[in-house]
């Protein structure tokens, strides 16, 4: 198995390749994932496409007409992939995923560009990360390039109907997942696995839900107190379901108190890790006056290596430098820092007037500014720019990424899909 992926120098790609080498069976005995064997059965009961940001979209329950399914078995390896009508899965009550959390997934989007084209954003990263997550929960490996081919074929079929050219600037949420679905209760790696992929209508969270008033700009975060999302030596770096269910308790409690997400802290020093299911960034000035964009490091495998996170850092390091054509009167050059930092540091920066802005980065919330953080029952207000809608750095980085996703600029990260 070769575990192909582009940009071989990245953490995600290398992690996927190394995991594949470690976990793969002998090639002569086990079949690799092969997109060329794809079988397509067209839906006989096509579904209705709701209006943009309608109630159906905000419910996040409506999927497109088709789904991808690929079975893996211990004796044969990967079977022929299939695209078939969207519908329920069947499994036995003693399926491994139901008892032992042998399950992982990805979250990504497909975009209808303003140039009429359909695009994915850096899909190689998501495919490689799914491969890595699969290894972490004793599930089989695959060639990420082949998964990318299946993804493009699937979206080439459903994309034209569900993201019509008449709706530029819209997107679908794509959910590839792998589950241990074999009929076995033993505490061991599953002998049968299902890889599947669905596309879900997803709302633009910056727009109000139908029938409600627009929310104030910016997210309000509640810093965690006794709960911990991830820890050194754990699996916080993998996108597995076991990271999410236990976090829902704190999330729902925060919602009752009027907060949008939990800002996850770690240890007695209150190290800042993630915000909800997003990576967290802060812009501040050091005591010496240096302007910094700071986020938690990947070392320690505590946070998820977000694709949006990595893209923010790459663009910032390329464009937010002295002499860059991308700088504006409001946005100057800035030092990019990945390090452990604490909530008390944010409190101190706020009290001393050095806190500039903060934002979250991820697939679900994209780039969203943070307006407040509640830490130890005291609310810290985060500056939100001149007009109170967003900090300048968050707004500019969001624009750069949107331009790539929706084809306003030609960029290697925007992968065009051939439509049927």
From TrEMBL:
Highest taxon in the source lineage: Eukaryota
EC number: 2.6.1.42
Keyword terms: Amino-acid biosynthesis, Aminotransferase, Branched-chain amino acid biosynthesis, Pyridoxal phosphate, Transferase
Annotated GO CC locations: mitochondrion
One Pfam family cited in the UniProt record for this chain: Aminotran_4
Spans through the membrane: none
Gene3D superfamilies documented for this protein: 3.30.470.10, D-amino Acid Aminotransferase, subunit A, domain 2 (3.20.10.10)
Keyword Amino-acid biosynthesis in record: yes
Protein name per its UniProtKB record: Branched-chain-amino-acid aminotransferase
């Amino acid at each position: 198995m070769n575990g192909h992926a582009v940009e071989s120098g990245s953490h995600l790609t290398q992690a996927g390749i190394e995991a594949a080498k470690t976990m793969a069976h002998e090639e002569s005995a086990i079949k690799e994932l092969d997109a060329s064997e794809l079988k397509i059965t067209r839906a006989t009961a096509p579904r209705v496409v709701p209006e943009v940001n309608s109630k159906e979209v905000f419910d996040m329950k409506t999927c497109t007409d088709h789904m991808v399914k690929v079975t893996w078995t211990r004796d044969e390896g990967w079977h022929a992939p299939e695209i078939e009508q969207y519908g329920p899965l069947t499994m036995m009550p003693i399926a491994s995923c139901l008892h032992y959390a042998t399950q992982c997934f990805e979250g990504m989007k497909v975009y209808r560009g303003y140039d009429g084209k359909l695009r994915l954003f850096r899909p190689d990263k998501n495919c490689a990360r799914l491969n890595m997550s699969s290894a972490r929960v004793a599930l089989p490996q695959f060639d990420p390039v082949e998964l990318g081919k299946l993804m493009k074929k699937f979206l080439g079929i459903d994309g034209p109907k569900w993201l019509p050219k008449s709706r530029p600037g819209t997107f679908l949420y794509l959910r590839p997942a792998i589950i241990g679905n074999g009929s076995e209760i033993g505490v061991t790696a599953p002998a049968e696995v299902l890889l599947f992929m669905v596309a879900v209508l997803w709302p633009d969270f910056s727009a109000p839900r139908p029938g409600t008033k627009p929310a104030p700009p910016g997210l309000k975060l509640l810093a965690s107190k006794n709960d911990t999302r991830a820890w050194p030596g754990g699996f916080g770096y993998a996108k597995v379901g076991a990271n999410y269910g236990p976090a829902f308790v704190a999330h729902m409690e925060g919602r009752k108190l009027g907060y949008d997400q939990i800002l996850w802290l770690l240890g007695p020093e209150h190290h800042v890790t993630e915000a909800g299911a997003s990576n967290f960034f802060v812009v501040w000035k050091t005591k010496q006056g240096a302007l910094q964009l700071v986020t938690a490091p990947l070392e320690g495998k505590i946070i998820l290596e977000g694709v949006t996170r990595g893209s923010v850092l790459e663009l910032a390091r390329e464009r937010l430098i002295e002499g860059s054509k991308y700088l504006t009167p409001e946005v100057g050059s800035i030092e990019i820092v990945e390090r452990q930092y604490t909530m008390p540091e944010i409190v101190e920066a706020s009290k001393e007037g050095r806190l500039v802005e903060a934002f979250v980065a991820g697939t679900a919330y994209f780039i969203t500014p943070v307006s407040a953080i509640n830490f130890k029952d005291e609310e810290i207000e985060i500056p939100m720019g001149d007009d109170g809608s967003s900090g300048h750095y968050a707004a500019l980085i969001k624009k750069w990424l949107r331009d790539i996703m929706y084809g306003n600029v030609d960029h290697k990260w925007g992968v065009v899909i051939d439509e049927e």
